[in-house]
């Protein structure tokens, strides 16, 4: 596990509709199109929100971009096919979008990139494993795509696309197969967190506290003790890395309502810490780290949410 001790102070969440006490708030404009299951990524000082499911419960083609400098949203070139649960990452002026689920409810194997300079989408080599609700991240010239689902079943596939050679490579599968988990990268480690396990051995879905860790230098999964697991069982939640910590917030658990709790894993101490709760408890929302803040975008809480809230963590 990574070592070192970083002391941080978590500020209250900032939101587009409320003012936390004790500090000024950077108000964020709500999404023009209310939706869940969107894909979110950053291109410089712009945040791109792609696809998702709308108020009619159908996948969308809509692509919208937020300018941090202007504080405004703009429509961009739509997806070729309506889709929710797309997995995205960005490099230079391009956004790479993998998988998704379309109007026919089947998982996609599509890989495409969006060219910001030309405002257009281009198709690339398809993924070996069709899926939606996967997670992508960029390391060097490679795009890592993990997990996801096919229909209601979890996928534990771990595949990597090389941008330079435009080819796919299979990596060791995720040890614990589950849906609605989250993945976070921190230094040379990849964290697979929480989720919902369902299979023939389980009559009812089971929310998990599981944390699996992949060592990207050695190319293998580490064996983790239960003491490293999350404090709260949760699935379909927000996650990211801030100031040397792994952050998780919201989602669904064993309670009848959406979770508002947030927690952070400190690799140097090998323990979880409690963070301020989300102002708007949500599940099925997307997240992105911008300017050392974790943004939670859209989602579901007794209906679709247009909330955009940020948790900021600073070194002390």
Please describe what this structure looks like.
With 316 residues, this protein is an all-beta fold. The chain has 2 domains: 1-25 and 182-316, 6 Propeller (Neuraminidase), CATH 2.120.10.80; 31-173, 6 Propeller (Neuraminidase), CATH 2.120.10.80. The chain has no helices and 29 strands. The chain starts with 7 loop residues before the first strand and ends with a strand. InterPro entries: Gal_Oxase/kelch_b-propeller, Kelch-typ_b-propeller, Kelch_1, Kelch_domain_containing_8. This is Kelch domain containing 8A. Keywords: Kelch repeat, Repeat. It comes from Rhinopithecus bieti.
Question: What form results from the Cα inertia axes?
Answer: globular
CATH architecture of the largest domain: 6 Propeller
First-residue to last-residue Cα separation: 23 Å
CATH topology of the largest domain: Neuraminidase
Specify the oligomeric state: single chain
Q: In the residues, how many domains can be counted?
A: 2
Structural class by secondary-structure content: mainly beta
SSE string, helix = H, strand = E?
Answer: EEEEEEEEEEEEEEEEEEEEEEEEEEEEE
How many beta-strand elements?
A: 29
Beta-strand percent range: 35-45%
CATH H-level superfamily of the largest domain: Kelch-type beta propeller
**CA-based gyration radius:** 18 Å
């Amino acid at each position: 596990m990574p070592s070192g001790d970083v002391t941080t102070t978590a500020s209250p969440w900032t939101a587009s509709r409320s003012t936390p006490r004790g500090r000024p708030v950077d108000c964020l404009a709500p999404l023009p199109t209310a939706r869940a299951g969107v894909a979110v990524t950053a291109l410089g000082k712009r945040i791109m929100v792609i696809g998702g499911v709308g108020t009619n419960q159908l996948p969308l083609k809509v692509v919208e971009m937020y300018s941090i400098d202007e504080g405004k949203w703009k429509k961009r070139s739509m997806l070729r096919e309506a889709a929710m649960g797309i997995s995205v990452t960005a490099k230079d002026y391009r956004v790479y979008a993998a998988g998704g689920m379309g109007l026919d409810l089947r998982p996609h194997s599509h890989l495409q990139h969006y060219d910001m300079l030309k405002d257009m989408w281009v198709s690339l080599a398809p993924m070996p494993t069709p899926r939606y609700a996967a997670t992508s991240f960029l390391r060097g010239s490679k795009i890592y795509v993990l997990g996801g689902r096919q229909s209601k079943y979890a996928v534990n596939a771990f595949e990597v696309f090389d941008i330079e050679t435009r080819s796919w490579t299979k990596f060791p599968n995720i040890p614990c197969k589950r849906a609605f988990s989250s993945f976070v990268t921190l230094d040379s480690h990849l964290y697979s967190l929480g989720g919902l396990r369902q299979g023939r051995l389980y009559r009812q879905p089971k929310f998990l506290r599981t944390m699996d860790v992949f060592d990207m230098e050695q190319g293998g999964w580490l064996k983790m003790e239960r003491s490293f697991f999350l404090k709260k069982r949760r699935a379909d939640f927000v996650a990211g890395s801030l100031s040397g910590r792994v952050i998780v917030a919201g989602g669904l658990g064993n309670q009848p309502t959406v979770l508002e709790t947030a927690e952070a894993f400190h690799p140097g101490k090998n323990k979880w810490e409690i963070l301020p709760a989300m102002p708007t408890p949500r599940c099925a929302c997307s997240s992105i780290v911008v300017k050392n803040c974790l943004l939670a975008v859209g989602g579901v809480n007794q209906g679709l949410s247009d909330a955009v809230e940020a948790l900021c963590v600073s070194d002390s």
